[in-house]
Give the backbone structure.
Amino acid sequence: MPTQVLSPHEISERIRLKARELGFGAVGVAPVRPSAYGDAYTRWIGEGMHGEMAYLAREDAVAKRRDPAVLVPGARSAVVVAIEYYNADADAAAPADPSRGIVARYARNLDYHDLLKERLIALQEWISAELLPVQGRAYVDTGAVLERELAQRAGLGWFGRNTMLIQPRRGSYWFLGTILLDVELAYDAPFAKDHCGTCQACVSACPTGALLGRDAAGAPRMDARRCISYLTIELRGPIPRDLRPLIGNRVYGCDICQEVCPWNSFATPASEEAFLAREGLDGPSLIEWMTMTQEEFSARFKGSPIKRAKRRGLLRNVAVALGNWGSPDAVPALAAALNDEEPLVRGHAAWALGRIPDERPVDALRARLEVEDDEWVISEIKSSLDED
Ligand code: B12
Ligand code: SF4
Ligand code: SF4
């Protein structure tokens, strides 16, 4: 039990110090209030820009996002933390090599959800034990919380045109986490400035046109249905045919709009070893990944965010990347994938084979067409054979 009576200012200051001790590189405290941008969020959902991420559109979840006090009744303060996960490409040539895949930086080692959540719970327990009794809940990514808005309100940074929360002189390769607490604290000033200025680098660099610039009110807008991160991680079914060629060799997530952001020239490698690339995830061979069995997938991605896509989702992405490479070297792996037990993998392998200027794909596609019974896969095969 806490033994001394501290002022709200002292409490907030000690929370900041403790959060830093726990490894969070940035921390701020914000009052819990209804979202200032609730209408913008609802409009975004209304326009269908969330695609198949139905959890973002559920009525109860929208109400919680619009007001954190609906999510955690009695919540009055939000402690918002950030932790850096940047890691440079160990082999600088890998991203430009179309025979190798690019995994987004956040997914090159352990899943951040577990690590951040554990530390946030430790922080909350420490507050109760050392400062004052509190009730609350910790959230990392998956809760019905507009994390970037709370971060901006807690003074951490601004909403970049790429929609990321950017910290001045630190960049955007930072995970966010929040604890909603039922006590009044002393608050940081919200981050007021927009440091994007006239820069449009992210909008121009996005290969799929997912970034739509700012709206009249200044909100950065994205059509998530076109974002490679959505297409390679969140989307469960086939990737729309017109978007496949634009994905290049990005097999899990995408960092392009962060890579081109001048504020990320300040990024420094993560101090947390859990976020530095583990072997095999920095520029993996696409051909090798295309032949991955379920056992290999489970062993290789133990504790990794990549598990979220499941084997069939990852191999779908790898097939697309191989099709974009278009090399005859990829034919044996793709022809084998035509017989995969997952229709999703077979269909994308068929698409990829159709992009390789070689005779062997035609034979493999014809042979598969004779035995294929999935309507969608048949349509992909026929389209690759120019028979549709
Ligand atoms: C859904 C989601 C996605 C979707 C949609 C992304 C998007 N831009 O909305 C997809 C799958 C595409 C995605 C991709 C990525 N994601 Co994501 N994602 C989320 C999630 C779960 C919800 C985001 C959301 O609600 N989007 C809906 C939009 C409308 O809300 P918003 O982005 O907060 O936008 C606000 C502004 O528009 C603002 N606004 C409205 N009007 C106005 C007016 C003015 C003047 C201003 C300034 C602002 C403003 O209000 C909105 C609501 O608060 C959050 C976690 C969370 N619970 O918040 C992580 C989160 C945003 N993702 C994260 C990450 C790391 C990524 C990726 C980098 C992963 C990768 N490498 O592939 C990419 C980045 C792509 C990108 N450019 O955004 C981090 C971002 C950290 C940061 N520094 O910003 C988060 C916070 C997770 C975390 N806990 O760390 N993600
Ligand atoms: S993550 Fe990639 S696809 Fe998504 S908005 Fe940024 S650049 Fe575009
Ligand atoms: S690239 Fe330019 S416009 Fe985009 S978020 Fe960074 S500073 Fe803003």
Remarks:
- Residues 35, 37, 40-41, 44, 53, 56, 104, 106, 140-141, 145-149, 159, 162-165, 172, 174-176, 217-220, 222, 224, 227, 229-230, 234, 253-255, 257 surround cobalamin (ligand 1) (CB under 6 Å).
